[in-house]
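Field: COMPLEX_INPUT
Field: COMPONENT_COUNT = six
Field: RESIDUE_TOTAL = 780
Field: MODE = joint
Values follow.
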Amino acid sequence: MTNEERYERGLQTLQKMAGEEDVRMIEGMGEFHPDFGHMMIAFGFGDIYSRSAFDLKQREVITLTSLITQGATEQLPFHLHAALNVGMSPEEILELVMHCAAYAGFPKACGALTVVKRVFDERNIVPNTK
Amino acid sequence: MTNEERYERGLQTLQKMAGEEDVRMIEGMGEFHPDFGHMMIAFGFGDIYSRSAFDLKQREVITLTSLITQGATEQLPFHLHAALNVGMSPEEILELVMHCAAYAGFPKACGALTVVKRVFDERNIVPNTK
Amino acid sequence: MTNEERYERGLQTLQKMAGEEDVRMIEGMGEFHPDFGHMMIAFGFGDIYSRSAFDLKQREVITLTSLITQGATEQLPFHLHAALNVGMSPEEILELVMHCAAYAGFPKACGALTVVKRVFDERNIVPNTK
Amino acid sequence: MTNEERYERGLQTLQKMAGEEDVRMIEGMGEFHPDFGHMMIAFGFGDIYSRSAFDLKQREVITLTSLITQGATEQLPFHLHAALNVGMSPEEILELVMHCAAYAGFPKACGALTVVKRVFDERNIVPNTK
Amino acid sequence: MTNEERYERGLQTLQKMAGEEDVRMIEGMGEFHPDFGHMMIAFGFGDIYSRSAFDLKQREVITLTSLITQGATEQLPFHLHAALNVGMSPEEILELVMHCAAYAGFPKACGALTVVKRVFDERNIVPNTK
Amino acid sequence: MTNEERYERGLQTLQKMAGEEDVRMIEGMGEFHPDFGHMMIAFGFGDIYSRSAFDLKQREVITLTSLITQGATEQLPFHLHAALNVGMSPEEILELVMHCAAYAGFPKACGALTVVKRVFDERNIVPNTK
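Field: COMPLEX_OUTPUT
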């Protein structure tokens, strides 16, 4: 596989995960810092996300958990949108935040929940929490 | 003790710590994600904060230190207000930030100090720093 | 639900996840620090792990990711054993570590892989990595 | 105040906190890396710990919380001994770990508890946990 | 060396690193919390940055790496400006972010890159990335 | 560039950095988890370390800083050896740890210094610290 093929494969995976605006945002990072942009798409979305051992939904479960655990709230909107796009339900996202409270601590979970609420509001999602 | 009693106990402790607006904010999280809201109040404020082994002031010393160390600046305003409400002096808060500089590093302490200043300004607090 | 029922529910879940030795280890923490032990079982394994929204396998995916991301390698053996006990395959564990390399950085992934290898060796697992 | 006076002040504070063996360990770091050793004693124990705004017991509450939150388990024994030397009770240490579970997550609290048990065993401490 | 001399030395180093506005910002922290401000200048910029073992450019490489690794994005603008002021090229900053992606994970690198872009825009820097 | 060429390039860079035993250790990880091993060498040592924008010594300054900041002490020996192999002096390593104390906190710096001392002892290095 050549670097061009890795990039192409990554771009296809990215387009399955992200809406137009978020693909555009990633491409914008590549315009500012081309080698970084290539690495994100060829390595991140190509070499990692495109592997068949997990489907994209399972990968987003892992990604969201890692982001919440490290307090990377600013990276959450992209991956919350992606998670919803590849089939994670709003209720599963809420459950994931709850499980993370025990492992990463309540501050990380509360910080995440604020962002989750904002993304759900943008998408007019009303989670079924009875 | 039933879950309702744990929740009730937590709510009472929360009301000793937080002003109306902050209680309302916690309740708002519970409206969005009821099980998470229950857990925060029954477990966090009920099972943990309500234990008599430490008073609320000592608990806020621990909470603020943990928040500063993990860089959870967005969770600081709630607990800075709570700390002041339960008897921590402004000067003790400043001293805590200073001690944390050595243990959590200067970036975490500087990030915290910016939030402390904002909260003190909101409450018209002029710390006695000679 | 009373605290006793929460504890009982947690203990049953724990026994589905952990082998005898690991259950014994958790109980040992409870002998040293009874309130902590109660909290771990009633809250951690009872209130969180026992919720039906995710099965135990999905919960271990989240737990392992959080542990790897925060570099909590000493807590990994318990949850690697649990993950294998509740149906995660060795190959899924290896894939999870690989995905985490991109999100938590290579040092965290390498540190985790060393522990994974040790646990696989203990259980005579030879992963199918072709 | 000169650097020599800062160092002298730090050394006196260190000797109030640490047993002979632990003072010796700090001095050993200073033999390997003299400027680092000077900084630890003059700045850490002199400029920070010697300030009168908190007593040494309150400072150890903050230090232990910061260490547990960042997962710095290897630095815990020195400060658990120091905490006990300056008047923190074993029961207060156990309570601190419990409070930290909610803020820093259970993995950090469990990792800390293992070290606490080891230090209590060394000192033949049997905490009063009913 | 007295504390006044340490402070004076730190102030001189700070003025080599930071523009007027950023020096003013640091002084503002000292007006709010004088002992903290003294510590930052006498210890941070005096005792540490002023040591001759590394030049200021090498020190900013280390500082930027530490800030990115701990996700302290809010402290980045000061040190990105300082790095550029003491001779780090825009291309070296971009390369540092890229190297950090592998060690601190992509979320930290992406978070940093957003701030780098903002600082470069403020200074009308167009990096030479071919 | 194909994946084989990326791997080959990475292996050559790795061999410039690491002694036989450490190269063997990396290869051992690749025997246990071939795709991870390929990624580490092709991406880590090939795509990142082999870029000409920084020399290997500058890269090790960044790597060591990131490892110390995240408390990844178990990954330090490999990179301390690598740093010394590619031209970092023992005194520069000690200075780096000292700078990190201010940014990552003293616990991380003390934890690192213990490992540095062990590696220097293994190599019979007596740093010139007068």
